[in-house]
């Protein structure tokens, strides 16, 4: 089952998506206010399927998608794929040993990525910093974690990164990762029971410039060096999430060091079982 948020004339609305049809659902009838409330409900699966709809349904390509986030924090895990380890080591010699060690360490790299207002939904814009010269998207499977700490759903994440800033000094990681429109999420969330077997989930990245594909790459969740539940466990150590959280799980697709994003590029990330998240790049 797929759930999401769209913009309507009356403000944001929570929707259920079936095939190519989007239907607004009535949360108020069961005493809920947000998608976040629904995702943390103990009877999520049954409730999401039974909620009545409001108004007319719409075609999937006729709505204004919002990121499927309310008040949750967005966190991210790094160096969870061999390719990301190599890429991070390429950023600078000084940082190479740090990223080499964390790939095999018991403790993963986990960092704060975004607040809701810094996230963009499907069809929205993601940003490259005006003080950066080497910028890439990072396509990632994103976990939707309930208030109780359970993985209840999945979505697509675009962890935008300024590689030159981070490469200059690993202590600049927050500036390389966290800024306006630094994270794409969406287009919706897929409940855990509706996802395919994890080992079969492919992740695909395609970047278009002036209508021409300038980069394409793919990987699989099977290539991850860490278990998803382990990442969640580390995230929640001495770290309460009263609103729940999104956790980006790292990338196995990184463009070559000669590539950098440009304004007006369009980034498409497709993950099996979820769909495609598309964002246009802006700068400054």
Task: Describe the protein's architecture and organization.
- The protein is an alpha+beta fold.
- The termini are far apart.
- The model has no long low-confidence stretch (mean pLDDT 94).
- Strands 1, 2, 3, 4, 5, 6, 7, 8, 11, 12, 14 and 17 form a twelve-stranded mixed β-sheet that branches. A five-stranded mixed β-sheet has the order 9-19-18-15-16, with no helix packed on it.
- Helices cover 19% and strands 40% of the residues.
- It is built from seven helices and 19 strands.
- Helix 3 (82-91) runs antiparallel to helix 4 (93-104).
- It has two domains: 2-66, FAH (SH3 type barrels, Roll); 73-283, Fumarylacetoacetate hydrolase, domain 2.
Q: Helices, strands, pairings?
A:
Elements: E1 2-8, E2 11-18, E3 21-25, H1 35-39, H2 44-50, E4 53-59, E5 64-66, E6 73-78, H3 82-91, H4 93-104, E7 109-114, E8 119-120, E9 125-128, E10 135-136, E11 139-145, E12 151-159, E13 161-162, H5 163-168, H6 173-177, E14 183-191, E15 202-209, E16 212-220, H7 228-235, E17 245-248, E18 266-271, E19 275-283
Parallel strand pairs: 6-17, 8-14, 9-19
Antiparallel strand pairs: 1-2, 1-5, 1-14, 2-3, 3-4, 6-7, 10-13, 11-12, 11-17, 12-14, 15-16, 15-18, 18-19
């Amino acid at each position: 089952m797929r759930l999401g948020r769209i913009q309507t004339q009356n403000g944001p609305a929570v929707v259920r998506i079936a095939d190519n049809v989007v239907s607004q659902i009535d949360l108020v009838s069961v005493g809920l206010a947000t998608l976040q409330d629904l995702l943390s409900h103990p009877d999520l699966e049954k409730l999401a399927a039974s909620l009545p709809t409001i108004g007319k349904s719409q075609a999937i390509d006729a709505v204004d998608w919002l990121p499927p986030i309310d008040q949750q924090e967005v966190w991210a895990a790094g160096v969870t794929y061999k390719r990301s380890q190599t890429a991070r080591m390429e950023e600078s010699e000084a940082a190479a040993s740090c990223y080499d060690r964390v790939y095999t360490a018991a403790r993963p790299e986990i960092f704060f990525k975004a607040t809701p207002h810094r996230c963009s939904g499907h069809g929205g814009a993601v940003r490259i910093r005006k003080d950066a010269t080497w910028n890439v998207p990072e396509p990632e499977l994103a976990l939707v974690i309930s208030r109780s700490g359970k993985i209840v759903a999945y979505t697509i994440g675009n962890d935008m990164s300024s590689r030159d800033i981070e490469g200059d000094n690993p202590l600049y990681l927050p500036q390389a990762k966290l800024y306006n429109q630094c994270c794409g999420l969406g287009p919706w969330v897929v409940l855990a029971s509706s996802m395919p077997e994890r080992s079969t989930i492919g992740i695909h990245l395609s970047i278009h410039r002036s209508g021409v594909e300038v980069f394409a790459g793919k990987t699989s969740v099977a290539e991850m060096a860490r278990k998803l539940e382990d990442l969640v466990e580390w995230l929640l150590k001495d770290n309460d999430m009263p609103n729940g959280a999104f956790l980006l799980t790292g990338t196995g697709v990184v463009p070559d060091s000669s590539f950098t994003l440009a304004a007006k590029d369009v980034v498409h990330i497709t993950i099996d079982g979820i769909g495609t998240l598309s964002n246009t790049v802006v700068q400054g």
